[in-house]
Prior knowledge:
The chain has 288 residues and is an all-alpha fold. The protein has helices at 23-39, 42-65, 78-101, 112-119, 124-154, 162-193, 198-212, 218-222, 225-230, 252-275; strands spanning 279-280, 286-287. A hairpin with a 5-residue loop joins strand 1 (279-280) and strand 2.
Amino acid sequence: MSTTAVPEPRHALAAGPQANLNPVYLTLTLAKLTAKRILSRKLFWIMLILGLGPTTIAGFWVVVNFSPDIGVHTRPYGMFRDILGQYFQGFFLPVLALAMGLGVISEEIESRNITFTLVRPIHRIGIAAGRVLGHMLVGWLILITAITGSYLANIMFQIDELFATLPHLLNIMFVLCFGFAGYLCTIAMFGTFWKKPAVFISIVFLLIDWFFANLPNKTLLFVSIRYRMMNSYWEPLPRFTPSLQDITTGVASLNALIVLALFVAVPLGIMAFRLSQFEIVLSGGTQE
C-alpha cells in the first residue's frame, strides 16, 4: 500500500525580522534622519559660529578687563544677561528660526528622507512632526551650546557663583528652547504654503510678534511668543527697546504650554493638511 507524502507547509516569503511600522517609531526615525542631514550642512556650522561669536568676545573682554577695581565680580553673569537680552533674544533666536524653519517641509530632490517616506506607510502628520522635530533638535543643540559657552566665558573668574546661578541658566535654556519651537513651526507653516514670499512673510511675523510684546493689550500679549518668553524668565532681562508694557515674572511651564498649543500644535496640523494635498512621486519631487 503506497502512501502519499504530505508536502511541508510553505514558508512565507521574506521571512525574518520585519520592519517596525509603529507610527511613533517611524516619526522618530524620520526626525533622526532629518537631524543627521542638517548636521552635515554648512548651515549648521554657520549658525553655530554665529551663536558662539559672543562667547569669544565675552571671554576676551573678561580676561583683559577683569579687575577688582571695575567691579565685574560684583555682577555675577551680569554681562551674560546683557548679551542674552541684546543678542540671543533679540537677534540670534529669530535668525536661527528663520534660517532653519523655511526648509522643514521643502526637502531636496531624492533626499534620504523622501526615500524613507516612500517605502514606509507614514502618515502626513508623522511626516510633518518628524521633519519639524529633526530641525528642532538641531536648533536646540545650537542654542544650548551657544548659551552655555557664553555663560562660562562670563563666569570664568566667578566660579564661586556657578552653583548659585546654574538654576537661572537652566531656566534661560528652557525659555529659549520653547520660544524657538514656536518660531520654527510657525515659519515652517508659512514655507509650506508660500514658498517664494515665505521669507518676507516670516520677517513680518517676527516683527509683529515683537510689536505685540511691547503693547499693553492682553489679547495681543496672549498671542506673542516674545512676551511669553520674557514673562518666563526668573530674572527679567534688560530691555533695550522702548516698551509700553511692564513684563512681570510668570509661570514658565504655563507659557510653554500656551506656545506649544498655539504655535506648535496648530501649525503642525495645518502642515499635515497641506501635505495631504500633495503626492510624493518616485522621482523624489512633489506635485500639486
